[in-house]
Amino acid sequence: MLVTGRVPPGTRLALDGRPLRVGPRGDYAFGFGRDHGPEALLTVTPPGGRPEAQRLAVAKREWQVQRLQGLPGAMVTPPPETMARITRERDHLAALRKTDSAEPHFAAGFVWPATGRISGVYGSQRILNGEARAPHVGLDVAVPVGTPLRAAAAGRVLLAMDLYFTGNTVVIDHGFGVQTLYAHLSRLDVTEGEPLASGQGIGLSGATGRVTGPHLHFAMNWFSTAIDPASALPATQG
Predict the structure, then answer these.
(1) Three-class SS of residue 134?
(2) In this structure, are 127 and 210 located in the same domain?
(3) 101 to each of 6, 112, 169, 175, how far by Cα in Å?
(4) Residues linked to residue 156 through DSSP beta bridges, in sequence order
(5) What are phi and psi of 118, to 5 degrees?
(6) What is the mean pLDDT of the segment spanning 147-172?
(7) What are the boundaries of the signal sequence (predicted)?
(8) Are residue 10 and residue 119 in the same domain, yes or no?
């Protein structure tokens, strides 16, 4: 879940003892991942005041089980000769997720990057070709190959390249550790370092990487924490 808001300028915040960035206007953001415990501690220190502890209840959710068949064997159990590439790409993404830029683009809200049937949800346990794998950490939107995709919010492109599992992939930085990822594209229309407006085109949907059919895999992170993108999107597509 993505949590955003605004406090009086000069307020200091900490989540479970971890200091949070607070913008000049008081904007802040943090997130909870799939396996977070039932409680979190938010410490609020007003300007010139004393720290106040607020206990946040994190609702427990039931997760779906999704079974996918027909994936190429190399995409479920990669051969040894591809592991160096997979490790390199995983490390690169981990480094990008440490980005802590100061412009709170997230504060203007998010739009759906594509419109279509939801074919996969965040948090579901994945069974690939009969083998249990890591939970799904994004939202899948079933769209035909070549569907235009949009930036879910303003920001800056951190990554635009082909990756082993996610195919042609775009990562956008929205500030304060909030990032979105768009996977399996057939065409990339942005370059790394490029500034983007909310709703700006980033490329075309496809079926590259580990897929059973064309769709957009849309994910969201707060630093290294994978959060449910649906928590930040409008209730209805459009």
Answers:
(1) coil
(2) yes
(3) 17, 23, 21, 5
(4) 173, 195
(5) -80, 115
(6) 98
(7) none
(8) no
Residue in 71, 77, 33 with CA at minimum distance from that of residue 219: 33
Catalogue the E-assigned strands of the chain: 2-6, 12-15, 18-20, 27-31, 39-45, 52-57, 65-68, 117-120, 125-128, 131-133, 139-142, 148-150, 155-163, 167-173, 178-185, 187-188, 195-196, 201-204, 216-222, 225-227
Same domain, 85 and 51: no
Instruction: Mark whether 41 and 109 lie in a shared domain.
Output: no
User: Could you tell me how many residues make up the chain?
Assistant: 238
Q: Which tokens go with 5?
A: 């808001």
Contact predicate 52/111, CB 8 Å? no
Counted domains in the chain: 2
Q: Is residue 9 part of a domain?
A: yes
* Domain range enclosing 125: 65-231
Give tens-digit pLDDT for 209-222.
988 899 999 999 99
Please state whether the predicted TM-score (pTM) of the whole model is above 0.85: yes
One domain for residues 74 and 109: yes
Query: Is the pLDDT reported for residue 126 higher than 90?
Result: no
Tokens of 108: 């203007």
Collect all residues with Cβ–Cβ distance below 8 Å to 236 and sequence separation of at least 6.
none
- d(Cα 39, Cα 6) in Å, to the nearest integer? 21
The answer to whether position 238 is within a domain reads no
Q: What is the three-class DSSP state of 106?
A: helix
**Residue 74 sits in the same domain as residue 189:** yes
Lookup: tokens for 67: 């079974």
List of residues 6+ apart from 155 with CB closer than 8 A: 105, 172, 173, 174, 175, 180, 195, 196
Confidence band of 127 (pLDDT split at 50, 70, 90) = confident
